Amino acid sequence: MRQTTSHILMVRPKAFGFNTETTGNNVFQGEIPLSKIEIQQKATEEFDAFVQQLRSRGIHVHVVDDTENPVKPDAIFPNNWFCSLGSTLYLFPMFAPNRRLERRGEIIAILEKDFQIGKVEDWTFYEKENLILEGTGSIIFDHINKNLFTCLSLRTDEMLVEKFAKTVGYKPVVFTAEDENEMFIYHTNVMMHIGVDYAVVCLESIRSDEEREMVIEKLSLNGRKIVDITLEQVHQYAGNMLQVNNDDGDLFTVLSTQALASLTDEQKAIIQSSSQLLPVDIEVIETVGGGSARCMMAEIFFTSKT
């Protein structure tokens, strides 16, 4: 399976805002002096500009509109509730009850209409047991080497990681990552990103020497270069990137303008040796939502019917 795709699904927000059900373990969320209407308007403007920038590079963006009711403040982050592997669409158990509403049958139907999907595998019943695994927020895939990386938290259950890895035929690389206040980092995709020829990771967040060396070893396979970012850069979303490609095979690393500004020249040079940096301005979405560019893009690896 290839590491990147040229097809991305994104959900245009209708009720974006500060989610009180997730703030307990997402320290990245913040409030700003704007009304709910103004926040929604700004988020929509940032979203539309983001989509246009991707499409202008030849990347296929499949936009689905959110629905106004029920209110889903985090619907703009679809990568947490589904992912595609092979010909299977996986549905994941979510931590916050109001985020579970994001799993809409209409979106699955759109994917089934446009892509060749063999089956849908539903893991959401684990929510009844309070076992959580939030898609590609929890899991970072190394498709080339068939490894999956996860840092454990309230949103990433170790048993489910092991079970999912066995189901899909990947090897789990499990570790813990903490911020400067010794709190578990809530999603792996804010401290790690894997591209074709490079990997971004916050090594200082992995306090165990043994786990850190294991992560370095696994990320370095096939000669991947490691971009080691600091916890300060993590808070500026430097770990929340996604590499995509267009139909010509050009590679783009999508990240926020805030994340780009935090990178050193050396870090940028490693990424740019194989991929073009594509920054997007999503300041309001990042600040209020506690997620960045990668969270807004759900990769589609299925074969297109057209």
Notes on the structure:
With 306 residues, the chain is of the alpha/beta class. The chain has a single domain (7-304), classed as 5-stranded Propeller (L-arginine/glycine Amidinotransferase, Chain A), CATH 3.75.10.10. It has helices at 36-56, 97-100, 105-114, 135-138, 158-168, 209-219, 231-235, 257-262, 265-272, 283-289; strands at 7-12, 60-65, 82-85, 88-91, 115-116, 119-122, 140-142, 147-151, 171-175, 192-194, 198-201, 225-228, 242-245, 251-256, 276-280, 298-299, 303-304. The two termini are 20 Å apart.
Indicate the topology.
Blueprint (H helix, E strand, L loop, with lengths): L6 E6 L23 H21 L3 E6 L16 E4 L2 E4 L5 H4 L4 H10 E2 L2 E4 L12 H4 L1 E3 L4 E5 L6 H11 L2 E5 L16 E3 L3 E4 L7 H11 L5 E4 L2 H5 L6 E4 L5 E6 H6 L2 H8 L3 E5 L2 H7 L8 E2 L3 E2 L2
Parallel strand pairs: 1-2, 4-6, 8-9, 11-12, 14-15
Antiparallel strand pairs: 1-16, 3-4, 5-17, 7-8, 10-11, 13-14
Helix pairs in contact: 1-10
Keywords:
single chain, 306 residues, alpha/beta, L-arginine/glycine Amidinotransferase, Chain A, three-stranded mixed sheet, 10 helices, 17 strands, globular
Please trace the helix and strand order, writing H or E for each element. EHEEEHHEEHEEHEEEHEHEEHHEHEE
Mind telling me the C-alpha Rg? Answer: 18 Å
Please indicate the count of domains: 1
**Multimerization status:** single chain
- Average the pLDDT over all residues and give the rounded result: 95
Q: Percentage of helical residues?
A: 25-40%
Low-pLDDT sequence parts: none
End-to-end span in angstroms?
Answer: 20 Å
CATH topology: the name is L-arginine/glycine Amidinotransferase, Chain A
Helical region count?
10
Strand content: 15-25%
Shape: globular
How many DSSP E strands? 17
CATH architecture: 5-stranded Propeller
Largest sheet: 3 strands, mixed
What is the CATH top level name?
Answer: Alpha Beta
Q: Mind telling me the CATH superfamily name? A: L-arginine/glycine Amidinotransferase, Chain A
Trace the largest sheet across and list its strands.
2-1-16
